[in-house]
Amino acid sequence: MHDNRLLVEARIVRFLAERLTPAVWPVSVPLEVSFWEAPGEPVPFTDAASQRFEPFVLGSAWGRPWGTTWFRFAGTVPEEWSTGVTVEAVIDLGFSTIMPGFQAEGLVYAPDGRVIKALEPLNMWVPLDAAPGSAVEFYVEAASNPNVIDGFDYQPTPLGSLSTAGADPLYTFRRAEVAVFDREAWELGQDVWTLNGLMHELPVDLPRGHEILRALEKAINAVDPSDISGTAAAGRACLAGVLESPAYASAHRVHAVGHAHIDSAWLWPVRETVRKVARTFSNVLELMDRNPDFVFAASSAQQYAWLKSFYPDVFERVAEKVRSGQFVPTGGMWVESDTNMPGGEALARQFVAGKRFFLENFGVEPQEVWLPDSFGYSAALPQLVRASGSRYFLTQKISWNETNLFPHSSFNWEGIDGTRVFTHFPPVDTYNSDLSGPDLARAQRNYREKGAANTSLVPFGWGDGGGGPTREMLAAAERTASLEGSPSVTLSSPTRFFSEAAAEYPDAPVWSGELYLEFHRGTYTSQARTKHGNRRCEHLLREAELWCSVAALRAGFDYPYNELETVWHTVLLQQFHDILPGSSIAWVHEEAERNYTAVEASLESLIAAALGALLGTGAAAVSLNAGPYAVGGVPALGGAVPPSSAVFEPVRKGSSWVLESDSLRLTVDENGLFTSLVSGGSGVSGGREVIPAGTRANVLQLFRDTPNQWDAWDIDEHYKFNVTELTDAVAVEAVGAVLRVERVFGKSRLVQRISLSADGTAVDMAIEADWHEQQKLLKLAFPVDVLADRAASEIQFGYIQRPTAVNTSWDAARFETVAHRWVHVGEPGFGVSLANDSTYGYDISRAESPSGVPHTLVRASLLRGPLFPDPEADQGSHSFRFSLRPASGVAEAVAEGYRVNLPVRAVAGVASSSVEPVVTVSNPAVVVEAVKLAEDRSGDVIVRLYEALGGRASVMVSAGFGYSSVEVTDLLERPLSVDFMNDDDDGVALSLRPFQLVTLRFRVGAA
């Protein structure tokens, strides 16, 4: 046989695109179109429908960026159309078939306001229950969202902010028709599409591919292009044989789960996500009504909450499908959050808020944590997953690694405390599958457990900007249920998949530690104001819950459940994996900063009200410490009048300045750089120098920051090749106990205030920056004279240790890492910690002084200036605080982290000058992270604590309030049966393993 394979393949492609696809709607008539453009933000259907609509001409431009245009469509189904035909409306708002979810979209309403479904670039049909001769009328709320990332060229764009996006229309309206849907032609198209996709994935030397090729050729020959409706059945008959050939017995087993990854904000604002949820969920509901086997999984309780608030009718339909098992809430979190940067209590509250919503509204509790797109995963997460009552974890993001291929598809993930969670990385390497031949073949090819297991999950449906599964995808699933050469596809749910996969693989391998994403390392630093707002609000929430609880217990204060819940929901939303990481458009971050300001004001008001009730009014003053460690004579979780503290003023010595205490002596040169830091001070023999000879610390370093792609997301390793050290100062002067250093560089100005902590054990640094650099990275460098083989970095409820040397490709790829409130490097017997109030990005490495002496270099990443997606990212004012503490172990680092982030609060004009601690612990290795009242509003007290140093700890927990009983609970405050707690008259005795997290519930009512 002559080899004409390539010619036939080309013929198939053209036949599908130019013959079959247009034949799906072979007969149509135009609809009359009128419109009303909303002048500002979106309005409800009832408001829009009452407006005056003007005639609209097809082919006209419409839609300013971020605008809303309401279209009304009217027409009549021709009487000559046969009774029983399927009638649909076909609406093309000006769609591109590339990147659905990133452009114009529409939500279709019946005249009575009932939501029908959405219009999307690859889903532009509307079902019509209309007989020949009957009238047709419906409305479309059309969103003219700009495609901010069009072409993926990462060029600066004004489209990301309402103030700069302009008013020129973005789209051209192409089509509005009532049409006959030709089911047989459509089915033929799905046959051809599925087989053609499979054929191209099969080895050329395998007979199966050639069988498909010749069957497709016969089908094309059998179909008359001038009468596709009349000959489509003949074409399908030619394909029946190859479609009926069953899958190999050893074929990879795919659980296809309907899904739509909807970013809660990204290249669109939060308000647009609210509408994206309604559009996607209405699409899914329409599919469910027609396909009872179809199951759709959606995470993010926040998105369901929006639906309940803004689209209650759609929410009730979703609830009905949840009850029937077709619509599956998954994930169990408030949003698909970042897991690198949220604090421990905040990450715990993601589960508390998410699971509470699902339980209260649907009576279901997800067992799987679903985070397909977050930028790396904290080693604290397995313990939190289990503590929330979940069992499984899913992501596909680690497939984006630039350097190393992750060795597993299914495995047990072990956290810092030893907790293990069965975890799956879908080898399809996407959360937006269309169940095409290439996607299914990739899932089979990439599956890493071959020979030991054979099951993977494929999330299918258009995502990022939503849209969800389509009827074409369901057709593909039907055809690949058992198809020779293809993996076997079963429509499934997350729970069914995990149950079967875990049972199939009882001895799955173990991965211990963080799941570090070798990509998107700039997200630890971009949009510093957003990160500062998050950190500040996390700690204000701790304060507010603590003092409101104490006031409720001791002064009858009305605990503000509703207000605190509202604030928590805002903070949790903004920990979404494109908000807190700084990778969204300007609109999103402008709104986030406004929200943080409002949250801060709300929490300060709650704190003031609680303290007013607790302390009364008078002439006294008191200092309150919400931290877990005593500070300056003020007890942890209590209040007192602190004793006066020493003042350490800078002293001029030659051209340098010296700040000195009994614990340390800092020497600062005429340019504000640290030339010496002696631990032990001048009066203590054997003082140790911290700064390596020939080096200087407190050095600001400015790097060129031009990543290859994904500007706001990425710091590429080549940044290190172009650096300018900002060693010149325009002013270095003593102002009381502070040494003020001012620097000017480029278009920017930075002021640093250097002092010693009140107890003289640490160097405090406050930085104010007026930053106007772009495509630059600003780091603050501290070379320290310790030879540390590992660096400890705080994460949620503990810390992780990472090597400082670069021995492997995994080490090399980890050139920028994340930490929370502190990092620590040390040798046996001596260490140095650096604490911060809002900085997350670090690089910590081995270095060598000019004289060849090895040491450790600690650098904190302060600011960036990426141009995409926000061309003004990070421009303007910023503030940072750091504490450099020598002679520090991990215990001191932990304490410094809390001191810097929870400064003692001084209150005057009160009646009481002391507050007894509400909770005390006998072992400083055990940290009280939260004190609050119970979620069920019973008045019970919740105390969350953890072992912080990485060792075994026995501790006595004493409550400063009366209670009838105490129990250990999960994060949702449900009792657990444990063997590590004993409650007696002396308090609650606990025996904790390293990094163990414990939630205690003190029953304060009658026994």
Mean pLDDT: 97
**Strand fraction:** 25-35%
Number of helices: 18
Q: Profile the largest sheet.
A: 9 strands, antiparallel
Task: From the alpha carbons, calculate the radius of gyration and give it in angstroms.
Answer: 31 Å
Question: Which structural category do the helix and sheet elements fall into?
Answer: alpha+beta
Outline type: globular
Overall number of strands? 53
Report the end-to-end length measured between terminal Cα atoms.
89 Å
Poorly predicted residue ranges: none
**Helical percentage:** 25-40%
Read across the widest sheet, the strand sequence of neighbours is: 32-33-34-35-44-41-40-37-38
Keywords summarizing the entry:
1007 residues; six-stranded antiparallel sheet; 26% helix; globular
Report on the structure:
The chain has 1007 residues and is α+β, with helices and mostly antiparallel strands. The chain is 26% helix and 29% strand. The chain is built from 18 helices and 53 strands. It has a 9-stranded antiparallel sheet. It has a 6-stranded antiparallel sheet with strand order 3-2-5-10-7-8. Strands 31-30-36-43-42-39 form a 6-stranded antiparallel sheet, with no helix packed on it. α9 packs across α15. The longest helix is centred in the middle third of the chain and has 30 residues, at 586-615. The termini are far apart. 54% of the residues are buried.
Secondary structure: elements and pairs:
Layout: H1 5-23, E1 28-30, E2 32-37, H2 45-49, E3 54-55, E4 61-62, E5 67-76, E6 86-92, E7 105-109, E8 115-119, E9 125-127, E10 135-144, E11 171-172, E12 175-181, H3 183-199, H4 207-222, H5 228-244, E13 253-259, H6 270-290, E14 296-298, H7 301-310, H8 312-324, E15 327-329, H9 344-362, E16 368-370, H10 381-387, E17 392-394, E18 410-414, E19 420-424, H11 437-446, E20 455-460, H12 471-479, E21 488-491, H13 494-504, E22 510-512, H14 528-555, H15 561-573, H16 586-615, E23 620-625, E24 638-640, E25 651-653, E26 656-660, E27 664-668, E28 674-679, E29 688-689, E30 699-704, E31 723-726, E32 731-735, E33 738-745, E34 748-756, E35 763-771, E36 776-784, E37 790-795, E38 798-803, H17 809-813, E39 817-818, E40 822-827, E41 830-836, E42 841-848, E43 854-864, E44 876-886, H18 890-901, E45 905-910, E46 919-921, E47 926-933, E48 941-947, E49 953-959, E50 965-969, E51 981-984, E52 987-992, E53 997-1003
